[in-house]
Design a protein that fits this description.
This protein has helices at residues 7-23, 28-32, 36-44, 62-75, 81-101, 107-116, 125-133, 147-162, 195-217, 233-246, 252-269, 274-285, 287-298, 314-331, 335-341, 351-360, 376-385, 406-409; strands spanning 167-171, 178-180, 184-188. It is mostly helical.
Length: 410
């Protein structure tokens, strides 16, 4: 069924804005983050005792929020594709509330899997993770930049494209090297960075996460594209990693870390406790960095194992799916499908629906494009060349086909 027009579109815009307001306090990473003192106490015990994280009260009342979301769901009565996208947003918000309401319990894992999947999801996901994790260490990658120097370098890359739509700041609360919000990038204040990492963060966090959020907020009707359609996380994080690769800022160390994070989620899901996962990561990344990586796996769940936060498994899976999506679209000459993917925060699974809504005038074309999209010839070469390595390797050249060397014969 075609999307509605006129007064019905205004009603959809009001409903979309209401969904954004309802979801504003439902912040996953803020609700799951550990205080830095948890790491300090753990390291002071020389890693002999399980950490004891605690969580601040949620910024909303769980029961009241679920009732509010059910009320909004009753307002989505039509069967057109635009309302289908809004229903999906509400369903994801309900799942997210249930996730946050189950912090520190075994039930947390069930809700995390519903939102982000498991580490073993996807074709040969664990085999690929092991392959990435086994890559040799990158050469000549030295963490020479302070957090402030990294912040400045990110600004130089992001500001010419997004201007004042993206603010770059320092933060002492995040576990990742950097994290993006709708209008800002937070850089971890106690970390050091390589120059390549600074560039990668600019393209991943700024010219992907913040950029797609800005395109989504600019939508005249479906403003929820700014906060994200249902189950967009895999493609959002995958698109961020693809951005690192396509701009020449990916290294073996980055691939290895993504592989190790997927394997850590799998080990924790299989029952490994925090100490076991931390010790394994510390062998490669050092004790302090292993604390941050282990927090990503165990935040919100239980440190005794069996109930991890599974979001870290989406980066590798998302990278593969977004890469193949882009390659397939460009092989068909379907640039409109890729542009639809830039129109907000969405899954590659919804790109076709969004493109149809662009054709209908319900969704506008994106105002901002990632840097790697600008040189289409280079892009298609990078994506297309990957097909070479998906075909069976050629057999060795038979001796009979080798050109003889007359000099050697004499």
């Amino acid at each position: 069924m075609s999307p509605p027009a006129g007064r019905a579109r205004r009603a959809l815009r009001e409903l979309s804005d209401a969904i954004i307001r309802a979801g504003r306090p439902v912040r996953i990473l803020r609700a799951l983050s550990w205080d830095r003192s948890v790491h300090r106490r753990f390291l002071a015990s020389h890693g002999r005792e399980l950490p004891r994280p605690s969580y601040a009260p949620l910024d909303f009342h769980l029961g009241d929020k679920l009732r509010e979301l059910r009320g909004l769901r009753l307002r989505v009565r039509g069967k057109n594709v635009a309302e289908g996208l809004l229903r999906g947003c509400l369903e994801q918000l309900v799942l997210t509330c249930q996730l946050l309401g189950s912090r520190g319990t075994k039930a947390f894992y069930r809700h995390s899997v519903a939102l982000f999947g498991q580490a073993r999801d996807g074709h040969q996901s664990l085999a690929l993770a092991r392959s990435w994790a086994s890559l040799p260490k990158a050469r000549a990658e030295r963490a020479s930049l302070s957090a402030e120097q990294c912040r400045q370098r990110i600004c130089k890359i992001v500001e010419p494209v997004l201007g004042d739509l993206c603010r770059v700041k320092l933060s002492g609360r995040i576990a990742a090297y950097a994290a993006a919000g709708p209008r800002s990038i937070a850089v971890r204040s106690d970390a050091r960075f390589t120059p390549r990492q600074a560039r990668a963060l600019a393209h991943h966090e700024g010219l992907w996460h913040v950029l797609t959020a800005a395109n989504g907020r600019a939508q005249p009707v479906l403003t929820v594209l700014g906060s994200g359609l249902a189950f967009h996380t895999e493609s959002q994080e995958g698109g961020g990693v693809v951005s690192e690769y396509l701009t020449g800022n990916m290294t073996n160390d980055r691939f290895a870390e993504l592989g190790e994070r997927t394997l850590a989620v799998h080990r924790a899901a299989q029952g490994a406790d925090y100490l076991t996962v931390w010790r394994g990561l510390a062998e490669r990344f050092g004790e302090t960095r292993a604390c941050h990586l282990s927090e990503r796996v165990f935040r919100g769940g239980v440190v005794t194992g069996g109930a991890p936060f599974t979001k870290d498994a989406v980066y590798q899976r998302g990278y593969c799916r977004v890469f193949h999506f882009l390659r397939g679209a460009l092989e068909r000459g379907d640039e409109a499908l890729v542009l639809a993917f830039f129109a907000g925060k969405l899954s590659v699974d919804d790109a076709g629906t969004v493109r149809a809504l662009v054709d209908e005038g319900m969704i506008t074309r994106p105002a901002f494009h990632p840097a790697w999209w600008l040189d289409r010839d280079r892009l298609t070469t990078l994506l297309g060349h990957s097909m070479t390595f998906e075909r069976p390797a050629p057999a060795s050249i038979p001796l009979a086909r080798m050109r003889p060397n007359p000099a050697a014969a004499r």
